[in-house]
Amino acid sequence: MLKKQAHKSVKGPASHEKEKDYWILEAIEDGYWEADLKGNLAYCTNTYARILGYKQKELIGINYHKLMDAITAREVYKHFNRVFRTGKPSKTVAFEHIRKDESRLPVELSVSLILDSSGKSTGFRGIMRDITDRQHARELQESFNLMRKMLGQTIHALSVAFELRDPFTAGHHRRVSDLSRSIATQLGLSADVIDGIRISGSIHDIGKISIPSEILNKPGKLTEIEFKLVKTHSDMGYDILKNIDFPWPVAKTVHQHHERINGSGYPLGLTGKDIIIEARILAVADVVEAMASHRPYRRAIGIPAALEEIKRNNGILYDPYVVDACLTLVQTKGYLLKE
Ligand SMILES: [Fe+2]
Hints:
Elements: H1 2-9, H2 19-27, E1 31-36, E2 41-44, H3 46-51, H4 56-59, H5 70-86, E3 93-98, E4 104-115, E5 121-130, H6 132-165, H7 172-186, H8 191-201, H9 213-216, H10 224-231, H11 233-241, H12 250-256, H13 277-292, H14 303-312, H15 320-332
Antiparallel strand pairs: 1-2, 1-5, 3-4, 4-5
Helix pairs in contact: 7-8, 7-13, 7-15, 8-12, 8-13, 11-12, 12-13, 13-14
């Protein structure tokens, strides 16, 4: 009923005189508008008016300048001018309207020319779409991306702080993280899972912060008690990380990175697929990197011996799919451990 009244009090759209066309324009979710060549609104649908917080008749005759700030109006003018000069309908342009209550509304606008029967331009017309939801979704995505970036930087800082305390293993986290990421990529895991593996790899030995550096860097063999103490780093790492709401199972991965699929690992003695894939990957990367690098208590054993170790224990200690992926990377694809 209200729409009928508005229809009677406002002249119909220039190019859509028929009643049927009027109702089609009123039925669409976006706002339809027409303006003269000076940018004065000659017609708009009720939807267009409602989106901007006006009644339809309040907007007729109003210039587009009144519905946006001066800088936006200048940009919109350039846009309209281009349509006028080229005669080509515009691609959509996004900008902010100012609503009647002075709030700002992100919209997307399409513009084309209205031509009379002789082909002369008499005005503009187009569709306006409220893109508030899309804008919010984009802002949320941006803030999510920023949070992930900050999380990555925080983890990196934690890793660097740890390595400052234990310079002999400096780079171990970085190299294990890179090799784990590459194995996960070779296995075709999703980008999200790969991100989690990369992050877990970069702090997997964080629990060693609780172990005296004289023990960590002790030349020669550890005593049984010392070795027991070193083995607590999986539990310690889990305790340090368990209350952080990572979007990945970081604490669990760190907890399980010394588990072995035949149950001979620690701290829980888990077997097979009870060990999460992230930890099965980290286990192989950790062993290969550790054997390939120098340690305070021994020289580097080397990559060939490291590959022999994972081959010999393929399917015993290590997941066969992970071992195959690691061998393909190093032997076929020429993967080199980072410096
Ligand atoms: Fe470890």
